[in-house]
Amino acid sequence: MPVLVKLPLIVKDATVADLKDIDLLEDFVITGEEVFLDGPLTPRVAILDFDGTTGQLRESIPFEAARSEKDFGAYGFSRKPDDVGDVPRQLASVSVFGTVYKTMRMFEERDALGRAVVWSFEGPQLLVVPRAGELANAFYERDSHSLQFFSFRAGGGAFVHTSQSQDIVSHETAHAILDGIAPDLYNSISPQALAIHEGVADMTALLCAFRSRQLRKRVLADTHGRIDRPTAFSSIAPQFAEALKSSRHYLRNLLNTKSLKPDAPEKDRVDPSEPHEVSEVLSGALYTVVVNVFESLKRQYKEKGSADPSLVEKEEDAYSEAKDLDPRGAAVRASRRESGDARNLSDQEIAVKALYVAAERFKRTLYRGLDYLPPGDVTLADLGRAIIASDQASHPDSGDQRQWIIEEFVSRGMAGSASDLALATNYTHPAVTALDLPSFVESDWVAYQFANGNRDLLHIPKDIPFEVRPRLDVTKLYWHRDGEHEVRECLFKVSWTESEKSTTVGGLPPRRRVTVGTTLAIDWETRQIRAILTTEASAQREERDRLLQALVEADILQLGDHALSPGGGALHRAVRGDVLDGILRIRGAARMLHMDASPEA
Amino acid sequence: MTSKLIVRMYNVRFGDGILITVPDKDPQSNQETERHILIDVGNAPLVASKEGGDDSVFKPVVDDIIATLGGKHVDLYVMTHEHLDHVQGLPHAAWKSFPNGGLAGKIDVDFSWLTASAAPDYYDTHPDAKKQKLAFEAMYARIEQHLRSAGVDKLQPYLRFLSINNPAATTECVQFLRTLAKTRTSYVHRSVGPAAGATPVFKLEGTHPFKEARFEIWGPEEDTSDYYSTLQSLVLAAPPPARGAAAEPVAAPRPLPPAGVDVGDFYNLVDARLRGVGDNMLAIDKAANNTSVVFSLEWRGWRLLFPGDAELKSWKTMKDKGVLKPVHLLKVAHHGSHNGTPKDAPFDVILPTAPPDNRKRRAAVSTWTNTYSGIPDKDTDDLIKTRCEFHSTLDDPQKLVYQLEFEG
User: Which of B56, B126, B136, B143 is the most exposed place for a label (fewest CB within 10 A)?
Assistant: First the structure.
């Protein structure tokens, strides 16, 4: 039986002068776990607080079970002042733990993925190190199953702990979660595939911030209900952003007009081979969509008291923030009041509600799109198609947001035209109609036979070996004109590799391997194909060449044993390439996104 | 009679020791003088490198140098960088083979070039580089302490890196080499190409006695701070030794996993957090290698390149500064490691696929097996062999010296 555990989360930078009147902390309740141990620790997440001097583990924070059914479990942390910093160390550990869960929950909710996230590594537990050492960095690392947050001295000499930034913790947690959903991205050398990792992590950090009610209220009050201004949410972690100048991935600049178009104005043009720059194009596009949804909702609430169904369905509009906060506290009362006719609300309350609803709608669209993403070296257009297809299949009648997504992807050069993003959804195919879905989900052999017999449908080239991935049987919550529905779908992914001509810079072999694949989404009840999407791998060949060249020049790409340290283990600051039969294959390229001297530096 | 420039590559095992004899004609008097350039002389420390660091090689090498000089002076001595496998040979000879000043009169040096950052006051005038240097020295001390505490199995693979980069031992040798030249000691950096900010390129006039032979120094940059990469954060159980104190083994217990965490996963993470030891040791090694004096010698249509142990960062900087040119002799950098020879644009400039003239092109490497892992690197050797004739001290490991001749 799940235990309810209430935790304090640090929701803003303790040193931000202009937000001093907001509480540093906001309560969050973990609702879905059955076991909590001293740590904080659950079977899925463990906080490991290593001492920076001795390397030993510090004392675990004791778990205190709820005293009654009305009460919450808690961690009895000490509020002793920290040895280095303003926030008590144990409080910071509890906050990291809670923020990891807050991020996981956004993905797991019934209206998003509708299932528990799984890690890409073998093993059930994500190990989180809140004080990993002195360095201006933080990262997710698949090989060590960990999130590691470092601390560093800012200009004035004060210690800055990256684990005390909700943005950074949420961003890194998103990397870990995305790695479980789309593991091929981690090994990709396609700049756009790597950019998806960064872009989704940035948008997740934003959504996490939007879920802080007091922060949302305060920022909207300051900006008179606007989020299309540079200061709207960029002031959440200014200390970190300023101090982490060299690590551009935390300098959130979502409000941008960046573009992949070669003829874009120079200030907007990005290097298409540099993943961080490409990710800004994606984040900018997605943020603009959130702004559009928010502004439209605000206007409609004010004018009509409710939203147009073409934007969000009636039931979808229900204000459900309580689930994110303390389900037995003041927030419930506030959100009940705000869930009625919006014309009874003040402009400020309307903006707070509209932002929550916009963020929730966007969350569904983005995270469900990830489920539809085909395997392999995907492009931004692949992501666009996946988002559009999943949204179209699930919300056929409320397409305003889809239209804005299409416009952004096309106007920023991520897709050539609207037709590039168009995809048939909800249609029948005899082979799929005839599928015995329970057997298909359970048996690799049945799945293999199906794929082999339907290569044309799945776009698998003739006579090429392929790999079937585990099938997912998922049930998600949707809203249609007649209300809330649960839709059960089967997600099937199949992948294969292709070799392509490669740059020979730095003595690299003349060919390299890229992964390609197809996602087939099937409606469990109707046996209709909800969508089929296949990777557009050939689109980024030139950009892959340039990224490889940058990795070689930065002395980051190491072939074979050159990626090993003298002691035999893998070097931290190396991306490993292996050459088999004269063809290069790269592993763990996503790690370069958080290297201190990534090629962009 | 035809004059010959002769390059003598000594088999010092894992290290460099090169003597160049240059017939140098004074254009005014038309008189030809035989001049000598001696580069480095050193090998890896014995304690860690066994055969590759066998100090007994120095005596016959120095004897041969003395014999080849035939009573003449070394006109120019070049210390490429501050690593023991490049600096300890002459001090060893002076202290062990020819004690009590016995080397004087046998190897007398007139001019010397030492890499810029070896100047005694260098770090007083270069605060950025000093900051980096101090951080790297502190990291070296912490890693040494950690590895010595972790036991012989952990220490052994790093012993060669630790000993070659040992700041105390290196400082002693460099101090000896600073006082070697009787006429002038110069601390040199790039002499051609664009100025680096406010720092002009190095002026070579007066730093050597050559009349006909022409030199260019292609690297290092005067400000070495760019050669230091970011160190990985390390939480090492053993406390760092006091500055200047020797590393002593200190018990360093492994942390224990908490209840509820898989033991294997826990120790996998603990070990991963220590992977930075390897990264940082390599970063320390690279930083010094990249301060190597890289110079070209032009003589009667030949261009010979001696890059010390320059690694990829240095090659990239030289390429960016536009100083690279095609050469007829490449002394292979860093003993034939995979990152001592660029495999792309810089390499194509110095040894282009199509030779710029009909002169023979050669490469020469001084190296030894089983000393540094991955050195010499076969792929690197194979690449160089596609462009030119290739010579290695390993061609005949018993041979004291092999020489390359350039007719002029």
Answer: B56
